[in-house]
Each structure stands twice: as C-alpha cells, then as structure tokens.
From TrEMBL:
It holds the Pfam family Peripla_BP_4. Residues 1-24 form the signal peptide. This is Substrate-binding domain-containing protein. It is found in: Cell envelope. Keywords: Signal. It comes from Streptomyces evansiae. Its main location: other. Residues 54-311 form the Periplasmic binding protein domain. Belongs to the bacterial solute-binding protein 2 family.
Length: 346
C-alpha cells in the first residue's frame, strides 16, 4: 500500500488524548466554550441528537491491544443515549468477518466501523457497504482504496518506527559501531512493513549505528519468546532492540531472562500497562515503549456518530468530518512515564 504519507497528514500530539477530546466536540450541541471546560471526552446523555445505529465489526480479543480496542468502542458507545450499538462477536478470520459485515449491511445500520483482520482482504466488504449507502469508518488496518471508506482513523505505523529509531539513536549516538536488532510483528501485514521502514529511515540519521538482525514474530507471547531466543542466540552482543509489540514483548522478556542477558536497551511498542510498569520500576532492559493508542476505537465511534448525524468537528472541520485522522506515536520513557501510565492497557 502507498497510504503511509496520507495517513500521517493529520497528527494529534500526546497520544490519543488530543484526538478523543477534539472529536468529542463533533457531536456536541453545546457552544465550543462550554465544551472546553468538560473533563470527560464524550458528551453527556442529555446532549443527544439524531438517533444513529452503528455497526461494529472488530477483532477477536485474543491480544491485549485488540481487546483494548473492543473495550474502548464499547465504553464510548455507552456514553451516548442516541446510539444503538450493533457489535459482532469479533474475528481475526477474514471469511468470518466478511460474513459479519454482510449481516450488518443487511440490518441497514446507519454507519459501519470496521477494524479488518486484513485491510487488503476486507476491501471488497468496505466497498459493498459504501455502495449500499452505509458510510464506513475504517479503523486502523487500512483498506486498499479510499473508495472503501468515508473516514480512516488509526495509528501512525511509519511514525511509530520512526520515533522508536530516533529514541534509540539518541541513546546510542555517542557509541562507536553500535548494533541494533529488531523484533518485528507479522510481515504479511502492511503495518509491520511500515513500522520497519520508519525504524530504518530513522537509523539513517545515525551513521554509527547498524541494524544487524531482524526477526518477524506474530504478535503473541509465544512467538515473541521464540523469535527473541533466536535473536539472542545469533547475536552475542548488541546495544538495543526495538520490539514492535508489547504483547510479544512479554515473551521477549522471558527469553532475555532465561538467557541471562542484559547490557542493552529494549524498546517496546503499543503502550501496554505491563511494559509501562517495567519502565516505571526501571527494573530491567525495557526502557521505553512507543504508543499505538487503542483509544482510536473511541474516536471511531465519535466519528461514526457524527457521520450519522450529519455533523462535523468543531474547530477543525465544521460541516463534514475529515477523511483521515492519524494519532501520534509518543515515546514513553522514565522521563514522562507518569504522564502516560494511566493510559496503559492490560
């Protein structure tokens, strides 16, 4: 896919806080001044408007981040009295998810929010909904064509790799012949390739650093442990490792402990609470994680509601919602951990 640049077109700093707070204004009937004084990102029930039925085809909750996506969508929908939330069981199987989307289309929901198991494979499902007159909010894993969605909202995978690379680069900029390794995600997914590209591009700014090894895992604890063990066996010494995913990072930390290795920096990805607890305690090699905020799912519900009610976003896009919203991937380390600790997902 070649959507990485456009996906980075609109960034919200400070992880997802800026995005969700701003999107809250899109469906409010209050003046902007009053909205700014609220601490809750979503409007209260009394601010209800036109009733909207939102269909949600999300992932199977077999991973910490994916479970957090479902929780965020559920909790945001419950905050609105004018939403009927039609949620599928959730699946990482393409054929099953296509069937679930067909069911939601046949129910004639007003808006569809879809986090596809595979963006490319689910593109036709998005196109089918759009052609049926049901606007689609494409969440995270992007479809192959903008014709398959009205709005895309998600994380910045290229930026995630870029920020991880720059953070590691700054830690090692004064070390001669520094070596780094990479524990990537699933290579069949475009998001993994974008994270690697961003990481590699960042390292180009540090001529003293060389990436000496890379292994692709599968976003699971088991795969993280197995692939990290292979990296540790092959690389007798290195200075830093970037791990794309904090769930597989749990396994990676187990492999590191079993091998009795230290003397390097580990940087995680996504922002799991377990990773943040290690960073806060400063009790091992894990020194930072790059956020990929699951609160994007709450933003997707806000956007879907705005679409159904024919509203825009106050102060940003007054009459229509944007076509692209990309959340910033902040690096969380010991210096700013207290700011982000509460956002860590289980």
């Amino acid at each position: 896919m070649s959507h990485a640049t456009s996906r980075r077109g609109l960034l919200f700093g400070g992880a997802a806080v800026g995005a969700t707070a701003l999107l809250a204004a899109c469906t409010s009937n209050e003046p902007a001044e009053a909205k700014e004084e609220k601490t809750d990102a979503a409007p209260a029930a009394e601010e209800s408007g036109k009733h909207v039925t939102i269909g949600f085809a999300g992932p199977q909750a077999d991973h910490g981040w994916l479970n957090a996506i479902n929780v965020q969508a559920d909790e945001r929908a419950k905050k609105y009295s004018d939403i009927t939330f039609e949620k599928t069981e959730g699946s990482n199987d393409t054929a099953t998810q296509i069937g679930q989307i067909d069911t939601l289309i046949n129910k004639k929901v007003d808006v569809l929010v879809i986090l596809p198991a595979d963006g490319k494979a689910l593109t036709q499902a998005g196109l089918k909904a759009m052609r049926a007159g049901i606007p689609v909010v494409n969440l995270d894993r992007i479809f192959d064509t903008p014709q398959a969605y009205r709005c895309w909202v998600g994380g910045d995978n290229y930026g995630m790799g870029l920020n991880a690379g720059h953070w590691i680069g700054e830690q090692l900029k004064d070390k001669k012949n520094a070596k780094v390794i990479e524990l990537a995600g699933t290579d069949s997914l475009e998001l993994t390739r974008q994270r690697t590209k961003g990481f590699d591009d960042a390292l180009k700014n540090y001529p003293n650093i060389r990436k000496v090894a890379r292994q692709a895992a599968e976003f699971t604890v088991e795969s993280g442990q197995a692939k990290m063990a292979q990296l540790l066996q092959a690389q007798k010494s290195f200075d830093a490792c970037w791990n794309h995913d904090d769930d597989q990072g749990v396994g990676a930390l187990q492999a590191i402990e079993q091998a009795g290795r230290d003397g390097f920096i580990l940087v995680g990805g996504a922002g799991a609470r377990s990773a943040m607890d290690h960073i806060k305690a400063d009790d091992g090699v894990l020194k930072a994680t790059v956020l990929y905020p699951p609160t994007m799912a709450a933003s997707a519900i806000d956007l879907a509601r705005a679409l159904g009610q024919g509203k825009g976003i106050s102060g940003l896009s007054e009459t229509e919602i944007p076509t692209q919203l990309s959340l910033y991937s902040a690096v969380v380390d010991k210096d700013n951990i207290d700011q982000y600790l509460s956002s860590g997902f289980k």
